[in-house]
## 1
Amino acid sequence: MSVDSAPRDFPIPEIPSCLQLRTVTKGLIPLAESKKLDNYRMGAHVCLWARQEGRSMFGEYRAAVMMQLRFDGTFGFPGGLVDKGEDMMEGLNRELMEEIGWDPSAHPVTWSDYYSTQVAGDRKLVLHFFIKEVTLEQFIALEKSCLQSRDYGKEVMGSIRVPLYTMDNMYNGLPAFLNNKFAGTSKQQLLLALHHSKLLTEHEISDVILKSQNLKLAPNRF
Ligand SMILES: O=c1[nH]cnc2c1ncn2[C@@H]1O[C@H](COP(=O)(O)OP(=O)(O)O)[C@@H](O)[C@H]1O
């Protein structure tokens, strides 16, 4: 497999003001710092997305963004824990092959897709996050290959597309989606990826967070 495994450092990404929330910024460290941590498990996940023109009857698509329903009933990004002694990029690409049938020799996730590193000291866990744009054609091919993957129906219960629109009742769509249960830091990573990829503006992100929290005040809204 040809993946760029050269060790490099990356600073903490610039976090937009709409996401300057403790839940989002907690534990963010530069990549080089994570390499000094002893006896930490290392995980890597990737947000794969493709531009998508047009709109459905519910709102504008903007993009297809892939998340997956995991064995534990939570949503997360494809990826997982890297084995002891395994190169990080090799481990991530291996996880993608197992979970979504990704062909790493054709389209490897590389360091150029790196976005952030977060550390959960209490769990002795370091989580690296990558964001990769693919074509819509590749995205659709991946959705199909998920069904044939080794882990489908076991660790992974299927890929999903994140709804990026907000419907007329000001809640359904992305705000409602954000009230699901998410694995690890994947909800924060999703919001960061939407900002980084310029799929949502800062104003739209603030608005979506506010609308998703409104449900907690009005649980019977539909
Ligand atoms: O998409 C994600 N983003 C950030 N953290 C995640 C995501 N999915 C899982 N995690 C966290 O990483 C840990 C290991 O991930 P995962 O369960 O995917 O590894 P595995 O498939 O190797 O068991 C989980 O316990 C969870 O805390």
Note: Residues 43, 45, 76-77, 79-81, 127, 155, 183-186, 189 surround inosine-5'-diphosphate (CB under 6 Å).
## 2
Amino acid sequence: MTLQEEYSATTEEKQRALAELRNIKADFSGRGWFPGTSGNLSIRVGAYAPTRFQFAVTSSGRDKSAQTPEDFLFVDESGRPCEATALKPSAETLIHCEIYRLTGCGAVFHVHTVFNNLISEWFAERGSVPVDAVELIKAFNIWDQDARIDVPIVPNYADIPSIVPEITAALDPRIPGVLLRNHGIYAWGANAFEAKRHLEAFEFLFEYAYRMELLKGSARRG
Ligand SMILES: CSCCC(=O)C(=O)COP(=O)(O)O
Ligand SMILES: [Zn+2]
């Protein structure tokens, strides 16, 4: 068996990943989480080693509220298509590659929302969004009484490869997500179910943090 064959998935596994991605794309689109063709999704398939893996990823620049046969393609650990295709992988595929390499996770989801953009800008100088003693922190499998977490924020650059080392440096193994400043969130999990749970929890916590900052501001003004 060649290395290529060893790490590529069965046809059934690939079809399952595509079906799951289609459902998640439709679900997130219904929430308005892909404005203006933004956002990208991926699910890993086949065997995994940090230096060798494959995943299905959304193709670049497409209307993510539409379902078409051109929505996804399979790429390898360096973000290159691993099957003959005219499709272009997401412009942010290298970020997915790095998250898989660092964490060994099974799915990575990226969305742009007003709350994740506002909160990343508000706390940009601090380098993280603090969240204190909110029950939904448990969605990250953090069960400490009154847990406090810091969601990392990294700079956003037009040149995507320049973002990769920022993610490498900022990633906290306890926190399954990272914010790109004034851009969006990357959230991941062992599989699509877990990545979706994490993404939903992040979005709840960002809205909570945003509204809490407003309340504190109005309390200070009297
Ligand atoms: C139109 S949003 C700018 C690109 C972006 O941030 C994004 O998430 C979508 O890029 P893709 O290449 O994955 O379509
Ligand atoms: Zn983006």
Note: The two ends are 71 Å apart (CA to CA).
